[in-house]
Design brief:
Length: 118
């Protein structure tokens, strides 16, 4: 099995109103999330939530209070880096996902980094 370090989720804007999928585990893959980088591009403080969501019978699941692991206010222009000790957050099933939501659309970016084992 090959373990490949990579950006698990390309840098992207965080949705508002509902959690959006930032990364979903591909079939026949185990993912290890080592870091989540959040950046506020706005001139105001923004709130962001991030969830580690288990798959729902093979489909992408729904974010809930029970799987939220980041809830942070980010000052204007600031970056927050959340790192996890090795091996990181282990995601073993297809469509396990990292989901995120902010209090305003297109004001916060997110990038998820780690490893995939195929």
């Amino acid at each position: 099995m090959a373990i490949t370090p990579k950006r698990l989720g390309e840098i992207q804007a965080v949705n508002n109103g509902a959690a959006g999928t930032v990364y979903a585990v591909p079939a026949s893959t185990t993912a290890y999330v080592r870091s989540v980088t959040l950046h506020n591009v706005d001139t105001s403080t923004r709130s962001v939530q991030v969830w580690n969501v288990l798959d729902a019978a093979g489909a992408v699941g729904v974010a809930a209070d029970t799987n939220q692991f980041i809830n942070v206010d980010i000052l204007a222009g600031d970056t927050v880096l959340v790192e996890f000790e090795a091996p990181g957050i282990i995601m073993e099933d297809e469509n396990d996902s990292i989901q995120a939501q902010a209090d305003a659309a297109n004001k916060v970016t997110i990038q998820v980094s780690g490893f995939e084992e195929v």
